[in-house]
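The following block was generated as part of the benchmark described in Methods. Ligand: adenosine monophosphate.
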Amino acid sequence: MGLPERGRGTVGSVIDLSEARAYVLERCPAAAAAELPCRDTTGLVLAASVVAVEDVPPFANSAVDGYAVVAESVTAATKDSPVALPVVGEVAAGAFTDRVLQSGEAIRIMTGAPIPAGADAIVMVEDTNRLADGDSVAIHRSVSAGAAVRPRGDDVAAGTLLYAAGTVVTPAVAGVLASVNASIVKVVPRVRVAVLSTGDELIDDGSPLLPGQIRESNRTMMLGAVRAAGCDAIDFGIVRDDEAALESLLRTAASASDAIITSGGVSMGEYDVVKAVLSRIADMRWMQIAIKPAKPFAFGLLATGSREVPVFGLPGNPVSALVSFELLARPALLQMMGHAAVDRPLVQAVADGGLPRRPDGKVHYARVFAAFGDDGRVHVESVGAQGSHQLAATSLANAIAVLPDGDGVAPGGSVATMLLSIG
Ligand code: AMP
Ligand code: MG
């Protein structure tokens, strides 16, 4: 009888990434909606549709600086034979005139100012010149009715369904929300992610390295990765390989966050404090995934009060931690924030120099540099060192090529590539 694959502190056999992802995503539902000021919602997902309750613009206004006229009264105007009109008023943006314009009159008007009653067109200032008397203007060009007039509701008409639930708020969407006075909107809030690192060998205080010590890097990287995914990151520091300290920090982290990311101490066969503590206090699944890097991975739920906080146990090797985050934690965090699209864009890229590998039963996630070629396709090349401890080379990658088990990709061959960023 084999070991059970799930449950408290169990260790399973090697599984496919798809199984690990499904397990994680099933346990990371979207968070409850909250109401936030629209200016704090960029990057978040709308939890309810938005219907405009106001017209934008709220009144007909001028698209240019110029003169409001009745179009009919300037039909004869040309450069050589301008039409002179008396200027009977002036209206700036934010102001208003109740002077009703008559045919044969002009009112000086600025961009965004309300169109005076009676006027039906604006002649732009470049097509006029103010006459020496100061009281009249020469119009050099005829205009048709409606010229340079922005009608009320031209951008948004009241009653329009602007956005469906599930829409991601971009800066422009947030601007539109403000423009229709949807100043408070229902969104799935940012997930608060506690980040901590584990290991007696880690220091981060800048002091000289003692024998066996290394500088901590995963936590710094993960704080950034979590923020780049649109989450709030909370730094819980380094915890020593000490059961009581780790348990206490994990419980504090759970009560202060919606998800926890640890790194280190999840390797197969290892029985270190991370495994001991998480197996005891959380409902964990310890996984070995048929991928390279990032084979070991743990996921579980840690109960705190009435909540269950997802715990992502990333491997300690920095490159493994990053790839593990990309493939498993980031999609789950995005799902918790209500995103329907949780994966990086996947394109078929050209591996100009090839991406060789050896068969080993695993899918390899090779860190590559991707750029658009003159042929309009994405081309990739390896960033070099692919060891799971070699973060410096990986730091130059803007994409990850997916190499199925086998001999890799020959020069010029096509390779599925996850784009992290491409410019
Ligand atoms: P572990 O999974 O804890 O055995 O760690 C695997 C490797 O990753 C070891 O070489 C650790 O020293 C290294 N490592 C673990 N955590 C970190 C970290 N936060 N920053 C940098 N390296 C780490
Ligand atoms: Mg360790």
